[in-house]
Amino acid sequence: MSKRWLVATAFSGLLSLPAADTPRTSPELVSPLGTKLYAQPDEKGVVEEARKKLAAEPNNIDVILALGRAQGSVWRFRETIETYSRGIKLDPSNAMLYRHRGHRYISIRRLRQAVADLEKAAKLDDKKFDIWYHLGLAYYLQGRFAGAAAAYEKCRAVAEKDDSTIAVSHWLYMSYRRQNRPAEAAAVLERITPSMKVEENRSYFDLLLFYKGLKKEEEIFRPDKMTDLEMGTTGYGVANWRLYNGDQPAAREMFRRIVSGKAWSAFGFIAAEAELVRGR
Questions:
Q1: CA gap 269, 262 in Å, rounded
Q2: Residue 230's closest CA among 197, 193, 257, 253?
Q3: Staple partner for 170: which of 50, 61, 100, 204, CB 3.0–4.6 Å?
């Protein structure tokens, strides 16, 4: 029997379909800094469309994953977690359901649950780049930099494209720098060359070239011209660079600037928030 298409009638009576779409009047979460954070409006109706498809195929894991992605695209992460939990009840050995739910636990800052899900996913499938990537991030956000580095090393070992290598190398480099292991951090940069093929992770690539001394800060970091997402991504890398190079006041000011933006689901935003919480 295919795990992606389950005829689990015993479960179908127990698992109700998600409620119809309702306006977002309450915050998605209150951040560790005390800020109310809200989902986005579903202007294109992607969530409702995904719900209709699930109503027609209530036990189809692919359709459950699609609904979770639709909910995640408008930052309805609590609903997303419920959706993936529904899938896990149907298929408790599906690594990607734990991987996706773990990611969304990160989004709502429930890091212990994120680690538990992602460790479970890694036990079920230790060859998936995304599982190790998000597990490394969950450890990193907890300040467990040695664990993050170990997970990112495993992640880098299964990276198949330059874009993937670039993304994991950025976080791996920072994990080693936060442990005061400059030799290991420098070794990460040895694999990064200007000729690498970049399709998605341009910000991470520019940061890695900056760490190597091949780009200047003013070339990659222009805060007055950056979106909130770019500020979270590039800004966090530059702030971290300042932190482990001895300029803690400047780093903390940049962390504060990042969390004043609106891209609260971005990894750089969540990481900046974690830095400020740890620094209290």
A1: 9
A2: 257
A3: 204
